[in-house]
């Protein structure tokens, strides 16, 4: 199994190499050269198996010969042992034909733990084998950072630096990033928004001298291994509802397009998925793109669903790559135009995209109303991101069962939830003292050179 860049101009890599590399050297994202499929019998045979076993069978065709079966099973087992629900990703019924997939039972209470815990174990295994160290730099709108820190804290072969937009993450999200005491963890509060964080991260990857000097590795949702980890719960949840003999649809609260792209991969692998619905908040560039065919940046307006406050949706490039029939030059051209602010998708590619994805958006008011109504009708307390999914899913219900991804625990966003429904969701007991723990954080200006110096100094000081 080889991986190629969406811009067609970087070396082909193995799974482990693509994982350690993150962003391709031509600025593109790695995708499998061809997507492996599972037969309907192979899918049916996974019904009722533990999450870890489904994970092994779904991901194995993508890893080539990078790990033995035994090694890979061990990695998966360690990745998910810290989850606080034995089903890992349990389904809850919301209505006659609507289900919620709870992806918030991991250590940081957001779905990002599914990918990050796995990637932590994969990195640890691979770097030990290679006797190498890397510097992980991540940009976060809140949940990626805490998930990355939780996955890599205390590991010998890794320094982890997380850039987050100063003042634009929730208190819990910030605490989760700034309170771990491990020496290899560095939380950096950047003056700017999430797109600034992501842009500086891209700059670091494109500065080859810096990149090679500190052995930079990326764990943002551009990392293929993260997308792959997320493919698994599309299978596990669909199997619970009768796949492959019954089709299901999914609605996915979307920011960077990573989670929903994993759904696309599941479908390409042979999982019978009827509809994949993109749900956005008021920062609705993806919904507008699906409606108009024009992808045009507008400023980010901070919302009560901060993990979706994104205008540059990096994984959308992977969808474009498939929409343009794997034409790396066409994707390169679109991305260059996007750097200037806007690009228009060809009619053929747009038809392909509309065939694969539906879309919807929720305003701030609609999000709050959904939190209030769903609590009244089902007793389920939704986080604002999950509420956006539920609102958009409710518009798309049909005779095919709908699964909405609940991407975070409501207690991660207590102010928004309290404002919406009048009661404050409590943190799970094991996190009860989070707000009292001491913080370590470094405020940084939005300047590449300063950031690079700081990172080099911190590594040298270890
Ligand atoms: C990251 C995140 C999202 C968006 O996921 P993408 O993969 O970036 O589309 C949605 N909800 C929550 C809670 C998140 O942390």
UniProtKB/TrEMBL annotation:
Task: Name its pathway.
Answer: Amino-acid biosynthesis; L-threonine biosynthesis; L-threonine from L-aspartate: step 5/5
Which residue intervals define the domain Tryptophan synthase beta chain-like PALP in the entry?
100-330
Q: Does the keyword Transit peptide apply?
A: no
- List the catalysed reactions: O-phospho-L-homoserine + H2O = L-threonine + phosphate
Gene3D superfamilies attached to this UniProt entry: 3.40.50.1100, Threonine synthase, N-terminal domain (3.90.1380.10)
**EC number(s) from the headed UniProt entry:** 4.2.3.1
Q: Which UniProt keywords apply?
A: Amino-acid biosynthesis, Lyase, Pyridoxal phosphate, Threonine biosynthesis
Q: Locate the N6-(pyridoxal phosphate)lysine modifications and list their residues.
A: 112
Question: Could you say which cofactors this protein requires?
Answer: pyridoxal 5'-phosphate
A single Pfam family it belongs to is THR4_C
Output the GO biological process annotations, alphabetical, semicolon-separated. Answer: threonine biosynthetic process
Q: Which residues form the signal peptide?
A: none
Cited InterPro entries:
Ser/Thr_deHydtase_PyrdxlP-BS (IPR000634), Thr_synth_N (IPR029144), Thr_synth_N_sf (IPR037158), Thr_synthase-like (IPR004450), Threonine_Synthase (IPR051166), TrpB-like_PALP (IPR001926), TrpB-like_PALP_sf (IPR036052)
Top-level taxon in the UniProt lineage: Bacteria
Gene Ontology molecular function:
pyridoxal phosphate binding; threonine synthase activity
Domain called Threonine synthase N-terminal: residue spans = 2-80
Family label: Belongs to the threonine synthase family.
| PANTHER family in the cross-refs | THREONINE SYNTHASE FAMILY MEMBER (PTHR42690), THREONINE SYNTHASE-LIKE 2 (PTHR42690:SF1)
What is the protein name given in its UniProt record?
Threonine synthase
Organism of origin is Cognatishimia activa
């Amino acid at each position: 199994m080889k991986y190629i860049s969406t811009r067609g101009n970087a070396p082909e890599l193995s799974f482990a190499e693509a994982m350690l590399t993150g962003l391709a050297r031509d600025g593109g994202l790695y995708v499998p050269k061809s997507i492996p499929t599972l037969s309907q019998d192979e899918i049916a045979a996974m019904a009722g198996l533990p999450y870890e076993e489904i994970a092994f069978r779904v991901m194995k065709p993508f890893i080539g010969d990078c790990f033995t079966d035994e090694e890979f099973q061990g990695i998966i087992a360690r990745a998910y042992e810290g989850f606080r629900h034995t089903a890992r990703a349990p389904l809850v019924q919301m209505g006659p034909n609507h289900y919620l997939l709870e992806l918030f039972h991991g250590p940081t209470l957001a779905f990002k733990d599914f990918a990050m815990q796995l990637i932590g174990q994969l990195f640890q295994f691979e770097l030990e084998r290679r006797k190498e160290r890397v510097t992980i730099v991540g940009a976060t709108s809140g949940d990626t950072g805490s998930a990355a820190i939780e996955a890599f804290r205390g590991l010998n072969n890794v320094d982890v630096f997380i850039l987050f937009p100063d003042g634009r993450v929730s208190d819990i999200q910030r605490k989760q990033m700034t309170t771990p005491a491990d020496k290899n963890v560095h939380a950096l509060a950047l003056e700017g928004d999430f797109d600034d964080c992501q842009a500086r991260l891209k700059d670091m990857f494109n500065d080859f001298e810096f990149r090679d000097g500190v052995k930079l590795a990326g764990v943002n949702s551009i990392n293929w291994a993260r997308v792959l980890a997320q493919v698994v719960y599309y299978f596990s949840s669909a199997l619970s509802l009768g796949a492959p003999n019954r089709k299901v649809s999914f609605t996915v609260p979307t920011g960077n397009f990573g989670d929903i792209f994993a759904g696309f991969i599941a479908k390409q692998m042979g999982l019978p998925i009827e509809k994949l619905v993109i749900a956005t908040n008021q920062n609705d560039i993806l919904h507008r793109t699906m409606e108009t065919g024009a992808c045009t940046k507008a400023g980010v307006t901070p919302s009560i669903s901060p993990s979706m406050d994104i205008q540059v949706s990096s994984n959308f490039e992977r969808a474009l790559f498939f929409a343009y029939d794997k034409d790396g030059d066409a994707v390169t051209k679109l991305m260059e135009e996007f750097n200037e602010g806007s690009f228009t998708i060809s009619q053929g590619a747009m038809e392909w995209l509309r065939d694969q994805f539906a879309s919807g958006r929720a305003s701030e008011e609609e999000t709050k109303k959904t939190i209030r109504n769903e609590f009244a009708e089902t007793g389920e307390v939704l986080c604002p991101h999950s509420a956006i999914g539920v609102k958009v899913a409710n518009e798309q219900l049909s005779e095919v069962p709908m699964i909405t991804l609940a991407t975070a625990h409501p207690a991660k966003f207590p102010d928004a939830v309290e404002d919406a429904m009048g009661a404050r969701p409590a943190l799970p007991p094991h996190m009860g003292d989070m707000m009292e723990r001491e913080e370590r954080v470094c405020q940084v200006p939005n300047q590449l050179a300063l950031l690079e110096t700081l990172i080099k100094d911190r590594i040298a000081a270890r």
